[in-house]
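Problem 12. The chain below contains 167 residues. Write out its predicted structure in token notation.
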Amino acid sequence: MEPRIPEILRTASGKIELAPSVLIEDLHRAAADLAAPVPELVLIGRRQLRSNNSWMHNLPVLAKGAYRCTALVHPQDAARYGVSDGALAELARDGRSITVQVEVSDEMMPGVVSLPHGWGHDQPDTRLSVASERPGANINALLDERLRDPLSGNAVLSGLPVTLRPA
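Solution.
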């Protein structure tokens, strides 16, 4: 084996550029986000071993067992917002809302509520007979398809401010 980097590298500097100027020049937008006030409660998604994707919700052998479309809420937040374990609550943001089943858990840090993605099998024309028995809440109903991460340009799917109240 012989080194080939010098002959195949095609950067202007002739070096591996780990911090291209286009990214460095754009860091002011990320810094502005860090200076913004922290929301009281933010929503994050999550994956689960027995529920990685929605197709698993329609297989009887994988759909059985404990209900998995729960909103994990830290005990301090549950007390602050008046929600309890197993009860229904309303998660809302920007005029959109969904009803979720609460699971009080210290697995979440205070100020964060987590809801798994891939649920909401109660939409018209959904042909998932097993999944429709336990449709769950659709996290996408709270997301804004116009929001983009300032550095990557990817859709913002996590860390969004929400409100929580008993349903």
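Discussion. The domain at 39-166 is CATH 2.40.40.20 (Barwin-like endoglucanases). Students who got a different answer should revisit the alignment rule from Section 12.3.
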